[in-house]
Give the backbone structure.
Amino acid sequence: MANLTSTMFPKNDQALLAWSLNFSTLITATPTAYGLTAAQATAYATVHSTFATALAACDPNSRNKSAVATKNTARTNLKTQAKALASIINGTLTVTLAQKIALGIPPRATPSPIPVPSSSPALEVGTVTGWTVKLKLHDSTSGSKRGKPAGVSGASVFSFVGATPPNDMGSWTFQGNTGKTVIDVVFDNTNAPGTKVWFTAFWFNGRKQSGPACAPVSTNLQGGSVSMAA
């Protein structure tokens, strides 16, 4: 449940007392309608009464440190009990949203689903030094050449050594997942100078759901030119 201390309870003591009176009145009248028992409602009414009495003792004309301490303790107990009952109420399927709102319980926020990436990354070859190729990824749907799309956690990068990139992803070599947009891919130094290598990648979200792969991009080891696959 959300942090009820900050979202359910008024910060002002008098407002909290009014909130608690409404809460106590409703659950006492029909406790089972909220998934509670009569004993639970009665116990809360006692906690509410204790807080009301302690708050009244903090009248500006008679306020003292002892009275404030007693009131603060009573307020803490009231919030603790109210949160416990609110948890039960929130967990009772028969309690409607309207009932919760009437009690002063804020509705639970519904998390927005994380979308599966709908676009492929723009993949570019930066530099080739020896057997190391520097790759750059960015959002292909924006005018910027930096950053990942919203909702994207990272990219999965693949490579292939050969004249023509395969259509079957199973034939590619997985280079790893990365949250970075600039990465180095290091090939075995047994590859001859001028060897053609290919790259492709796809975005994934926080649930590791992947989007479409980008068109393969090629270069040649040790200073070859960069080109897009036909």
Summary: The longest helix spans residues 65-90. The mean pLDDT is 90. The longest strand covers residues 152-161. The CA atoms of residues 31 and 37 lie 6 Å apart.
